[in-house]
Amino acid sequence: MVLASRFLRVTDPPMRGPDVMAVQRRLIALGLYTGPFDGVYTPATARAVEAFQRRSSLRPDGVVDPATWTALGFENVQWGGGRWHITIDTVRNVLGLYEGGRLTATYPVATGKPSTPTPLGDWVIIEKTPNPGGPFGAAWMRLSVPNGGYGIHGTNDPSSIGRSVTHGCVRMRNEDVLRVYNTVPIGTLVTVTGQVFTARLLHRYVPPGEDVRELQTMLSALGFYRGSVDGVFGPGTEAAVRAFQQAMGLAVDGVVGPQTARALQSAYDIHLGDVEP
């Protein structure tokens, strides 16, 4: 399990969207990016990200991962009260809209899958973008989660609504997201509730489990593991983890902690070509 929105990177066709635009805006403010402010993740954007990562003592790979999002240090709009309140139940996949403490509407939504869950907690809408298009649909409302480009947005895949399938964003039908977008202002409180997914450290001595099986599947797809996908963290799995850590420039200890898990999820997303929010 990794708390990570989609990993922004150079792809063909290029990734685009309001999350890319937020990164470009921040890089412009830092004096690192002089290209077009267009929400398209181009090689020029990646070079600016690499420059920022070097400045921040991060791995300069041009991929905007959770550590890079956090280091970019976006300023958040603080909640100062207000008549509107949004709740999101990630178990039932339902968004509730409250006015003055009274529930006025509910909408079905899609939320994060277990491996990339929607972050639980109280957040604030810090940005609104009309008609971002593509996988973001008819509207985008960015949340104040510091380690990713999370938001409430529309979709070009209405069949996903009601399911836990996203990279952590909250998807709505386009007609529904427009109703919410046109109602709530920047600064609206958004409370996300649901099941807390906890991730254990994976190492040679952990009991077998589905998380080890998922690790083996990812390492196998990336070419580091050739053993059985059986959920048992044996010598072969440990060797594969060490090889992956070596390749990624991480501490080579054979233990899958938060840093290795983030790098693995990023590499796996890139391998799959996954660019959905």
What does it look like?
The chain is of the alpha/beta class and 277 residues long. It folds into three domains: 18-72, Muramoyl-pentapeptide Carboxypeptidase, domain 1 (Orthogonal Bundle); 84-193, L,D-transpeptidase catalytic domain-like; 210-256, PGBD-like superfamily/PGBD (Muramoyl-pentapeptide Carboxypeptidase, domain 1, Orthogonal Bundle). It contains seven helices and nine strands. The chain has helices at 18-29, 43-55, 66-72, 174-181, 210-221, 235-248, 258-272, and strands at residues 84-89, 94-99, 102-112, 121-130, 139-143, 151-153, 164-166, 170-172, 189-193. The chain has an eight-stranded mixed beta barrel. The protein starts with 17 loop residues before the first helix and ends in a 5-residue tail after the last helix. The mean pLDDT is 92.
Rg calculated over all Cα atoms: 19 Å
- The secondary-structure element order is HHHEEEEEEEEHEHHH
Instruction: Determine the mean pLDDT.
Output: 92
Please work out how many helical segments DSSP would assign. Answer: 7
State the secondary-structure class: alpha/beta
Total domain units: 3
Residues in helix, %: 25-40%
The name of the CATH topology of the largest domain is: L,D-transpeptidase catalytic domain-like
Kindly report the name of the CATH homologous superfamily of the largest domain.
Answer: L,D-transpeptidase catalytic domain-like
Placed side by side, the strands forming the largest sheet appear as 1-2-3-8-6-5-4-9
Percentage of residues in strands? 15-25%
Low-confidence stretches: none
Most strands sheet? 8 strands, mixed, barrel
How many individual β-strands?
9
Examine the secondary-structure arrangement and name the CATH architecture of the largest domain: Beta Barrel
End-to-end separation: 16 Å
**CATH secondary-structure class of the largest domain:** Mainly Beta
What overall geometry do the principal axes of the alpha carbons give? globular
